[in-house]
Amino acid sequence: MSKKWSGSIMVLSAGIAWGISGVSGQYLMSHGIHVNLLTSLRLLVSGLFLCGLALVTQKSNVKKILTTPKLLIAISLFAIFGLLMNQYAYLNAIQYTNAGTATVLQYLSPIFILIYVSLVEKRWPSLSECFSMVLAILGTLIIATHAHLSQLAITPKGLAWGLLAAITAALYIIIPIRLIEKWGSLVVIGLGMLFSGLFFPLVTQAWQYPLSLSGDNLLALFGLIGIGTIFAYTVFLKGTALVGPVNGSLLASVEPVVSVGFAILLLKEVFYPIDLLGMLLILISVLLISYRDWLIMRSLRKMNEDDNLPI
Questions:
Q1: Which spans are transmembrane here (predicted)?
Q2: Which of 137, 180, 187, 254: CA 20 to 30 A from 147?
């Protein structure tokens, strides 16, 4: 099997795994596990595993970051405003809506990244970018109001947490760009998860919340942490290294589709046709942005190949 196909299968597997994690989180919160405890467990256990893997494969990078105050501050900022806030907002969005709706709302993050890039580069978005933003806004309005602008079809808290999940997902991508370029995704994400997994339980005193470890809850915890975090992040990083970040983001867009499907099949959630229309518009807007980036990357690669041709 070629590297491209192997990488594609890995990224698709990660997207499916993330879809499973959302449904698992919804199940656990509906069966008495508090969002503060769930966030703490997910970050801490995943952080310990990924840091252990990073120590085995990239020990020198881990040591350098841990002994450099400037790098520790940068990782801490990423841990709190990127990883922690995103995980917490996403799980709260699930709690007040459902796994499918929360996942789709979180997928608005490329729109916020686009706005950030436009502001930094001091340029207006292109026509295709504007069209993508219009589709995303329209899709969000449809999900939130069912096309009746005078009332909300989901709770205000659910909408607010979903939008915050999208904003913090954008921060999760923007904040560590330079760190990841220099030190690698595994080290940065692993340390970020560990830092936030140690910080958040202390702030919320997560140990005060009851943890029911019935058979079903243990299975759901494995789905959230083992499959939806440890497996998903590890496989996604490996797959993206093989197919490239733009192709990776395109393939990972299977996540909201899987999340909605599992929410319907496993949790018996009801989605109306107008909900699915809104979700479809958001996914189209994200795919348009990702496809544009893919075309740009392909053109640049082609230009570089042409420049290297012998005359």
A1: 35-56, 68-90, 96-119, 131-154, 160-179, 186-207, 219-237, 249-267, 273-291
A2: 254
